Amino acid sequence: MAVVTRGFGGRRPEPEHEIPPGQFVTDDFPVLSAGPTPNVDESRWELTVRTETGEGTSWSWEQLMALPAEDVETDIHCVTHWSKLGTTWRGVSLDTLLADVETSAEFVMARSYGGYTTNLPLQDLLDGQAWVAFEFEGEPLDPVHGGPARLLVPHLYFWKSAKWLRGLDLMDDEDLGFWEQNGYHAYGDPWLEQRYA
To answer: What is the CATH number of domain 24-28+44-192?
Structure first.
């Protein structure tokens, strides 16, 4: 004999967006930083990619703006458990920036104005996975969110998307960035809950 309780409606409906384990959805865009917001004027902004041999390629703001840009719609996930769904960004793909850079490096250290660093495998910046973003929701990127330009690597926890980006150092061997030296996971996959080492 089956027992049926009042109000039982069967299976729960599937959520519109799947989010990584341990996350909650927010409509806000929380501001979290390892230090004060640097004042980086576009007239003095520069991005430098340095290879493992020490060879460097740099772009001014005007040169970055002259490159083909892409619109990106993506969910973002912070290690502090919030996820923001359906965000829209505009930026230059790392595929474009690294197209003419000769390297055999496997790792990258992203460096920011203000001194912040974070490490990533180079393969995670290629094949349409990462951008230098300069707009958010159709507006210039606010300084508290990394403006004038930040790294956007949405498939990893958001601390990997370095704010106030100023350089990418290509490396043969992995070195740890700021949060990684302070106990965060070296990779940071939100779907695997790689929050801490």
So the answer is: 3.90.420.10
